[in-house]
What we know:
A: two-stranded parallel sheet, 8 strands, 7% strand, elongated, B: DNA Polymerase III, Chain A, domain 2, Proliferating Cell Nuclear Antigen, 4 helices, 19 strands
Amino acid sequence: xxxWVEKYRPRTLKEVAxxxxxxxxxARWAEEWRRHLPEKRAxxxxxxxxxxxxxxxxxxxxxxxxxxxxxxxxxxRTREVIERIVGTASRTGSLKPGRKKLxxxxxxxxxxxRAEYGGLAALRKLITxxxxxIVMIANNPWKLPADFxxxxxxxxxxxxxxxxxxxxxxxxxxxEGIQADEKVLRIIASASSGDLxxxxxxxxxxxxxxxxxxxxxxxxxxIRDTEVKIFETIQRVLKTGSIDRAVDAxxxxxxxxxTILSWxxxxxxxxxxxxxxxxxxxxxxxRADVFYGRILxxxxxxxxxxxxxxxxxxxxxxxxxxxxxxxxYRYPEVFVLMAGRKGEKQKFKALAExxxxxxxxxxxxxEIEQEYIPLLMHIASNPAHLAAxxxxxxxxRSHIExxxxxxxxxxxxxxxxxxxxxxxxxxxxxxxLGEF
Amino acid sequence: xxxxLSDAKVLKLSMDAISNMIDEANIEASEAGLRLRAMDPAxxxxxxxxxxxxxxxxxxxxxxxxxGVDLDRLNTILKRAGSADSVELRADGxxxxxxxxxxxxxxFSLPLIEVGDEELRVPELSFLAAVEIEPKLLSEAIKDVEIxxxxxxxxxxxxSFRISGxxxxxxxxxxxxxxxxxxxxxxxxxxxxxxxxxxxxMTRAGDLAESARLSIGNDIPLKLEYLxxxxxxxxxxxxxxxx
Lengths: 436, 243
């Protein structure tokens, strides 16, 4: 399925939302290319995510009628690859005569490290020799060496203001035939904090399969706020092939790494369709989980980096192919199940606490919970023994229900036990008929 | 054994009262009718229930049989009977069929179970007082006392019969004068205390008879009899003040 981000990507520079001055600078640069080789053959668009950098690059290509040569972050951008793909393209003509090419390199700030060794050097050479315009995109250009930056014309993109985001969302709703309450869109827009891409993704996630968005959905959005953020995190991990991008996605998230781990575990199979990729990704996830266990046990948070790298980079590089398109991620089922068990767990804890208070077992509540309660559950399966246990420990109806796991048998056992119990309680001793 | 009862009320009420105290019991079927005698697991209450052959519309019993029945199950089935339904009971050696005849014929089958026969020794008791009152009066009095207490004290002298209870929440006394009672005899003042749980269950059957007959003494079991087309009587051990 096509993402709305792709579907509604602007086709002309004019259509690009926000950042007017940046866009017109791009247009001026393109104009220069028309006349002569400009001083700087490469453009470096930089700014926060979702501010329109990529959209501008593609809109430019469409407007110029150029063929796009892309080099995405999910490709390994070693020197060899850059030379092979971009290098040859930059020096040879197009298959379609007369057609120009535009080279788009996404996430240049991600090109470094051992895996992409020599990548920047190859790019440097490319920039100085290219006969085709090059547009490079970066979130943080300051990560790039200064002399590399100097080779480019830098154009800054800023966060898109909320009104503009709202306008785009409205347009998409119109095109999709969705009746949306403006309040909902406003909440999405403000939650995006100037990231148009995430706003559109949120809208798509919410409006999927619906024709109407009402105010009460707005509440869902605000609740989903963290969910949306985590969507982004796992999307980044699952889509990228770059170690740095993946690690960055997890370590820059506000979410607890163990939460992200659960999300990844839940959604891996939705994204990775090759069994080999999936198996490898899960093996990395499980190793990350082993580290998490160690962290908890030893309280050694120094191990956290291994956990994070295994679950992010490990999962990201486990795939041999790219999986394109929009994947609708799911809320981890494990949380739902845990929440369901939570009440029960608490009840067992309370029972253990009560048994501890009674001082009959001479054990800690933890020990009671682990050692004695299973025993009590076994005892409870026999009504006669259960009655004795009820008397001995002063169990209440709710406890018995917990131990027997059945309401009706708990009721019965409790009733008969209570009758016997009352005999020993206060005013008078219940005697049996046999005594007469 | 085959028995048909066009008015199932008696059977329903008794089973409702009994099954609350006793989980399983043997029902003896003989020419005389159906009889259930059993003690509750704590040996505090004894039930003697007789549904004579004459109270059935049709009754035939070739040879004497003992039907071990899970009373709770039986009660659940009988509860399904509407007021206009007639109930037919049929037993072979393995199961008890309960057929409800109404607009539809509904047949329930209840497997018979093995119920250990315990020796039911009915104690010899010398009661000091016997009072016969309307069943409703008794069940209401129990409900009144229940507000304050877990125990009921029955006391009787020449003038009146008193049902009372007291607890942390206060006290309640219900006084029934000699004149109000259907019959009243008292040799000497008598007083005994009982658990209200049992009495609550026992008095549930109240509607099956015109009168409830209570026999009491001093710290001895209570005898409660409901005598109508069927006879249902209970013996209930007292609570004795510990010294």
